[in-house]
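TA notes. Do not distribute before section.
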Amino acid sequence: KRHAMMVLTHLILNDMIKVKGQVCEVAMLIVSDDTSLNDMSRLLFNELSKRSNNPVYNLIPDVVGQMSINDAVKKADFK
């Protein structure tokens, strides 16, 4: 998982692939018990928020929608 997250982060931040689709899975890693995955997912969203076109705002509806129907996500994780 760590290597996949590193590759995804690299590809997304260097504009080699677009952010869409399964970004909810990356967002769910923010509450992961694995601190390295947690840090990498936070880093990805922090770096995306610094961009001028700000794609994070466009991702919020998809992330919230997918997380709300996922049974693995607890209510406390939304906070």
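Switch to the second chain here.
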Amino acid sequence: MKFPRTWVPLASTHELDPDRPTPVEFLGQKFATYRDNDGNWVVFDDACPHRLAPFSEGRVDRETNRLQCSYHGWEFNSEGKCTGIPQMTKEMQEQVPAKRSCATTYPAQVVKNILFVWPWEEDCLSVLDNPNALPEGILKGLPEDSPTYTRDLPYGWDTLVENLIDPSHVPFAHHGMQGKRTDAIPINMTVPVDKGEEGFSFEWDDRTMGMIRSGSGEFRAPYLVNYDAKFLTETPRPFRLSALCIPTKPGWSRGIIMTWKTEDNERADKESMSQTELELLAKQKKKKKKKSLMAKVFTNLPVWLSHQLSNKFLDSDMAFLHFQEQERGKRADYFMPAPSDRCISALRKWISIYTSDDVLGPLPPPLPRSAMFDRWTQHTSHCKHCQQGLVTLQKIRRSSYATLALSVLGINKHWVPKITALLSLGVWRIVSKLENSFRVGEFKH
């Protein structure tokens, strides 16, 4: 398989549950990951050497610091060595060939909340002299402690990258969420600067949410799409977007969106300012108004709620991308006459040079909409924040149901039970709808 040999981003430790083995995938290869008692994230081949049951269905024994296969109870330490076979005595276990009983593990490290693995046959030391193949180089310039949102998407890695380097779709595909259709204007996009295997960069400007936006973007091949721009308002506002695009298997990809917090944006802005600009900024800060109540509310949204908003955003172009990819294999090349399509042409050229066909296909059959918008499988099942949020909402729903039942008993005696019943019914309906949003989505334009 032809694909650049770099460290591979697999998942975000901001979202992973450290106490259970979570399934992750890259180019059709399945892994299971958890955090051991020493605080290190461990990556296993997701198959027990005994009968090939998935470790991701197993459990982490905190008392022994072992990964246990839940099929027959075989146990393994963080290096993959088998330390216990319940079906054999210790004397018998000592006779078992160590090579056959060991699970396969992979070199792993965490940088800026992103779990990286080295899955290649080549030694990971082979890329030491190439900073762009190392986690620090892949994430260069990004925040140190970035909150993330991860979703497994029912379209391939190439389609995901293609969508992210195309700002022209935003007013239409994300109408009502990030601007409106009336924001659409001819986009001024430069011819991408070819950087060989390392990808390409470009400059562009557009309009979104009624504001002109201008800046630069890059495809830091093969995983990162990064934007650094500003809204050209009276006081320019930063716009930064960083997304990791991971090829999990043909027809599927994983997107990890890395959030730039206010302090991250301020730090990045200062690094590019002259001394005069820094002094001016300091003066403006002294006059700066306090945050409005609404701004404070949005800043302090629970993680699970911000993830539900992100789910809806990605739902809005899900069907386009899934079915577009299916058609691309049947028809001739795209027709792309506008300057805004230049990056798509550059990406297709890069793919033809640096990857092989088996990375992208053959594609699986098209999915029904119920599977296409399956938020549980694509996000909630591997996000600790959303799982905790769902548990909290279930408790609120049960409490509101109990309150409603008690209120009904006294509804004819006093006006207070009537008000309580109505409020409980309202809470119950809202919470039930929110609960469902963790499991399934949909979008109609």
